[in-house]
């Protein structure tokens, strides 16, 4: 069984983060740590939080390896568009030459960047 021992200062900080951190995933991780610190078994924490035992284990291990910084960090994979490097160029062009349709915009973006995108992607 994995155990953690939190100081009173750490418990106080975690209790604040439990309801005040802007990201719900961090709030969830903090709740798991607070319950684990009370000596609850992982199966009971899983039942109380509607998380899997594996998730409980990963949160506790994350805390053991990286501390509170690891618990507070949220780094989901967010793919970056190839068009990002052309943002300024595309905006300047369309401010001077507004397209009359998505298809026209699609053609101009392909002409400017060499990157072909679908009408759905262009409209976004």
Give structural notes.
This protein has 124 residues and is mainly α. It has two domains: 8-72, Arc Repressor Mutant, subunit A, CATH 1.10.10; 82-123, no CATH class. 66% of the residues lie in helices and 0% in strands. The chain has helices at residues 8-20, 24-37, 42-49, 53-72, 87-96, 102-113, 119-123. Helix 1 (8-20) runs antiparallel to helix 2 (24-37) and helix 2 packs across helix 4. The longest helix is centred in the middle third of the chain and has 20 residues, at 53-72. It is elongated, with a radius of gyration of 24 Å. The model has no long low-confidence stretch (mean pLDDT 90).
SSE blueprint and pairings:
Blueprint: H1 8-20, H2 24-37, H3 42-49, H4 53-72, H5 87-96, H6 102-113, H7 119-123
Helix pairs in contact: 1-2, 2-4, 3-4
Q: Which class of secondary structure composition applies to the elements?
A: mainly alpha
CATH architecture of the largest domain: Orthogonal Bundle
Provide the number of structural domains. Answer: 2
* Cα-based radius of gyration, to the nearest Å: 24 Å
CATH topology of the largest domain: Arc Repressor Mutant, subunit A
What's the number of extended β-strand segments?
A: 0
Q: How would you spell out the order of helices and strands?
A: HHHHHHH
- Which regions contain 5 or more consecutive residues with pLDDT less than 50? none
> Percent of residues in helical segments?
55-70%
| Principal-axes shape call | elongated
What about the largest sheet? none
CATH class of the largest domain: Mainly Alpha
Count the DSSP helices: 7
Would you tell me the overall average pLDDT? 90
